[in-house]
Amino acid sequence: MGEYDLVCQTGGEVFEDGYDFSCPSGHKGLLRARYREKRFAPRGCAGLFKFYDWLPVRSSYETESCPVVFRSERLSKELGLRDLWVGLTGYYPERNCKSISCSFKEMEAYPTYARFRDMGGKTLVLASAGNTARAFAQVSAETGGRCVMMVPESSVGRLTVTEPSDSITAIAVKGDYADAIAVADRVAGFDGFLPEGGARNIARRDGMGTVMLQFAQTAGRIPDSYFQAVGSGTGGISAWEASLRLIGDGGFGDRLPRLHLSQNLPFVPMARAWNAGRREMVPEDYAGGDVSQVYADVLTNRRPPYAVDGGVFDAMSACGGSFSEITNAEAKSAEKMWLQCENALPDPAASVALASLVRAVGEGLVSEGECVLLNMTGAGRDRVREDYDMVEISPKAVLEPDAADDELRSILDV
Ligand SMILES: [Zn+2]
């Protein structure tokens, strides 16, 4: 047996990691890693692999990239909170934040490539044009982990890295994001290729959970309240799972943090389902959810792991908390507030998280003295451009969505 087992969140069975994304018994619930090491004992290195014992990997990479936890004196004063901490993943040298792709998705990418290397060097397949693609491209360039990215043709040019790399193959797909996903699904079925797995990938979830671990290392405790804006909600699940591990250590008390999750109007399906007290999501939750009107468009996931065992509903039920629906105006006003306090442009999603904290303070959901962790999931794209020459990744081919498998194989040399 390895250093961790997997536990099915539907049936509770425990088994060895066969690198599947689903339970061998066919249950639909998420799998969760159960680490042999119960003590929280970060290693002495920089970068997120200091949390190696609680990442589902055997390989690791040297990197400085890690969430950074700090107190923003100005923001605390602005909000009237005495024990506010910011967890930031991004590029912000003054605060020692060195995640070049400027997004917490980088914390998902590193352990995912390590896990793919553990599996014998499979090629990762994903469809994205946003933060996820940028993070997985950057980490591919740094680690040599191979990836194939399907990008909607309209988004070509948005994919940039600090250094070009042979390990990345980008393919532009004519059509929209759904067309890119459909092609990615086909490529992921080829021998030697695997999908990145989304919320079902324990490496992504436990990588995302490192912000909670970094908080525990810095502040020596579990926060009373945790704020994050969510698209798939996986960040909420990760915060819950990381907190459970900290509780299992025995030195951090036994109280889970309250989860204050947020989405951006008009696309707020999970917030609606939760606030209506439903485990099931219904079509009305998506009604009026025009994604083109959403400031933080990375928050517009259409198939979030909400109802699934071990998913967002279970995380919220275990932790308590709130799910807020934030307007674009609130997000933009929070962005301004952040920029008056700190010198790195936040991602729109991070601004939504801050807006939800502003609102919670206003509504008295958070008290002046409670320990709050605000997860700023991305920042510093303005700053990284000052320090690095970004290289655009040009697509190897431009394809129709119905391109034949043979054509795909020949582009990928398989
Ligand atoms: Zn099962």
Provide a descriptive summary of the structure in words:
It is a single chain. The chain has 13 helices and 18 strands. Helix 2 (105-118) runs antiparallel to helix 5 (202-208). The chain folds into three domains: 4-54, no CATH class; 68-102 and 203-382, Rossmann fold, CATH 3.40.50.1100; 123-191 and 388-411, Rossmann fold, CATH 3.40.50. A six-stranded mixed beta sheet has the order 4-5-16-13-14-15, with helices on both faces. The protein is globular and about 60 Å long. Helix content is 33%, strand content 18%. Strand 6 and strand 7 form a beta hairpin. It is α/β, with parallel strands linked by helices. The chain has helices at 73-79, 105-118, 131-143, 177-188, 202-208, 210-219, 234-249, 269-275, 312-319, 328-341, 348-362, 381-387, 405-411; strands spanning 4-8, 14-15, 31-35, 68-70, 84-88, 91-92, 97-98, 123-127, 147-152, 160-161, 168-173, 193-195, 225-229, 258-264, 321-326, 372-376, 391-392, 397-399. It binds zinc ion. Zinc ion binds next to loops.
